[in-house]
């Protein structure tokens, strides 16, 4: 009798279980996604994955790409690096996907990049922050379609502030105390200085704070006439709400996350500006009608306005695969993605363009919106304004 | 120490009481098991290999926690913080000084030992839950310092660590990692088993039982507690260092409180006070989510429940943990012993003797 | 002045959360690590009743309160009473497991979107001027008042009512209490019910102020140092601990570095553990000193 017996049994059983996964259709373009589908940050990523899948299902229903189906395998990584690593291994080695997609927290990037490099499978970031390797000079295997970009966003936002204020700007920054945001805001401080603005204060609040008033009090005491916040939505909006309750009524600029449109209508504040690159549903473009229908058919439980980002990613995937002749290989997909121009049908200010050394996009287009209390609806404050992406 | 279980086998020398493997059958099984472990990477697919690597890496940390909690009876909720301390020591030394493997590993161990000493100090005055919370403070402080470093140096998506190279040869391949991690896990298990049958190990068990009695028996309670913290933290930090190299990066997000909970779950589900339990618990906790996913796929539910499969997985983990705590407080090791006893007693139906451990 | 208001609101949040830890610990000697999830469940309860009783906000709030109380009692009878007699660690782990289960179930039932129960009730969170140049949000004011009411009622309950005295007796010496005819399971269930009610109330109020999403769980953990600094088995201690921690946090944000506000409670806790491990008002023998 020995304890070792079970260990062997357990190992064998586990190995058998893992080998026994059903084989996927061989006549389809296989794409593997590792996303934060559950866990504390899922709210910012799960809608993107689901809308991307809904779009590809729609493409399949229309006859697929080049007459073949696009099959998408989704794995949950709960924003945990170890799970992302395992997902990447499984997707590459077992499912033999031709493209890896990451829609998760930046802490999951490193293990996926490692696997992508090892196997030579391109890696597409759809919804998480774009890693530096996708900006020129880009890594041959990494691509990104995510709307936000710490440095460009603050340049665009500060440009907007500069252009819409006649008096000297005394600006304050607010954000969440996470490395990504702090790096972004530090860049914004430099940009502000170069634009001749005076930075009067910078506040970082811990990831969840029970009450944002103490942070807002300090911002208010610094007496800014503009506040810019680039951060996860919670910290952006709660700092804002706390500021308003303290009686500060200045203009506040933030990044337009997935839920921005819904939130503008909830907050209904005339001086709460959001800046972003994805068109709002209230534009009522033809593609929006399609989005509604697709979301309805897929039975998605999110408001349609949350789905733009994932829809864009789906369009990019479709366009890239269109250029891949059958049978697909990771090399062909990477080659197709390195020279790609995707017409986003108005969901962004212009086409998404990838070149050999720019896998972010050549130009990023920004719009600014706010709620107009007089008309009781969202209005555009600034129309598409392009910023060239270089590093 | 094991209790003789085969009939007709009686110990005749004191040394036999201390033997890790007492009978020939057990030696044979152990050899077979070792052989299976060595052959495994050549048979397993890439995913199974990666899971095995995770289990081996997890086992180092779980055994370390088992020494502290399962044997010395000290509750710790700072496990993720200690792993982070080891991983960050490695990452920082690598980034700042380009330090090689043979520098970062001992450095991580040293940092771990030092942290263990500092955060073991409250254990001299505190017990139980109060201690748990003071170790929680360790977690928050280490994570805060790690985040400061990442921000100050601009590594906002984490510190990338190159694979360790030994004499110009880079450790990169999953199979090579398997053997490295296997060696690390085996060394940890053997080290712990040896420690537990030494004076130190017996002192730990004594303070776990009753501190006052242990003190009366001449055991230095303070020294035993601190040594438990130092040894456990050192092993944990080494696991953190291995994590940094194995995953190729370090970032604060990788060391959340949930990681601590997972390690504690490994120890509990495996069964308190047993090194085998720590290993079984690690296997269980790491493979469980994949098992559920596979189960749902096999049942053909994956398509229908695609939107909720992940939430189901999360809930199932909590549910299984509850079921273990309620119905099998001795953990997997308890199940294992019951099976063993059943075979031993067969064909006689009899409950295992009380106190058989 | 604004600083004082900020401290009061934050202290009220911490106090309302930590009294749940104290109630459960005092009666059953278990630290509930599922408190954050139970808070969140309470808040989701309010969200659900708000849409159920749309148009009758008061009824919705009352129903949510009763629901939270019932959930607590249910948790005790479904899970925690089975853990009596097991080691403290096992019981604490059971609460952790319960937390994981609840989090999964809530994600299943409500998704991951941010919800706004206050808007669902049809109320707004107005800003109220206090004195010269300080402001407090409507919800913040309710928080302070609710915390004061909860603590006042709890003190009265534990001191003057029969059930309150039984609960204290059961906490002090369960064996003796049981021998004197006190039904321990009833008392323990009541403690869980009350703790979940107060926690749920905290969850509802925080969600009303800031929206309801998964980070609430972590806020539950943040009240931890407050309960410990005060002494885990003392309600008065929890109140004082909350004020100390809140003051330290707010002053740290304002005068030193907001980045440190996350760790400062734990530094205070460590200092307290070294100097006076049983907390401000905790009982000393409780610590079972070496």
Attribute tags:
heterotrimer, A: 391 residues, alpha/beta, seven-stranded mixed sheet, five-stranded parallel sheet, globular, C: 290 residues, mainly alpha, two-stranded antiparallel sheet, 3% strand
Briefly characterize the structure.
With 357 residues, chain B is mainly alpha-helical.
What does this structure look like?
The complex is a heterotrimer of chains A (391), B (357) and C (290). Chain A has 391 residues and is an alpha/beta fold. Chain A contains 12 helices and 14 strands. Chain A folds into 2 domains: 24-147 and 284-360, Rossmann fold (3-Layer(aba) Sandwich), CATH 3.40.50.2300; 150-276 and 366-388, Response regulator (Rossmann fold), CATH 3.40.50. Chain A has helices at 4-19, 46-61, 81-94, 109-119, 150-163, 179-194, 213-221, 233-245, 260-267, 286-298, 308-322, 330-337, and strands at residues 28-35, 69-76, 99-103, 123-125, 142-144, 170-176, 198-205, 226-229, 252-255, 272-276, 340-342, 352-354, 363-372, 377-388. In chain A, helix 2 (46-61) links the parallel strand 1 and strand 2 (69-76). Chain A is globular and about 65 Å long. With 357 residues, chain B is an all-alpha fold. Chain B has 2 domains: 46-255, no CATH class; 257-357, no CATH class. Helices cover 71% and strands 2% of the residues of chain B. Chain B has 14 helices and 4 strands. In chain B, the strands form 2 sheets. Chain B has a two-stranded antiparallel ribbon with strand order 1-4. Chain B has a two-stranded antiparallel sheet with strand order 2-3. In chain B, helix 2 (24-43) packs antiparallel against helix 7, helix 3 (46-71) runs parallel beside helix 7 (174-196) and helix 3 packs across helix 12 (275-298). The termini of chain B are close together. Chain C has 290 residues and is mainly α. Chain C has one domain (13-215). Chain C has a two-stranded antiparallel sheet with strand order 1-2. In chain C, a hairpin with a 3-residue loop joins strand 1 and strand 2 (134-137). Classes of the chains: A alpha/beta (391), B mainly alpha (357), C mainly alpha (290). Chains in contact: A-B, A-C, B-C.
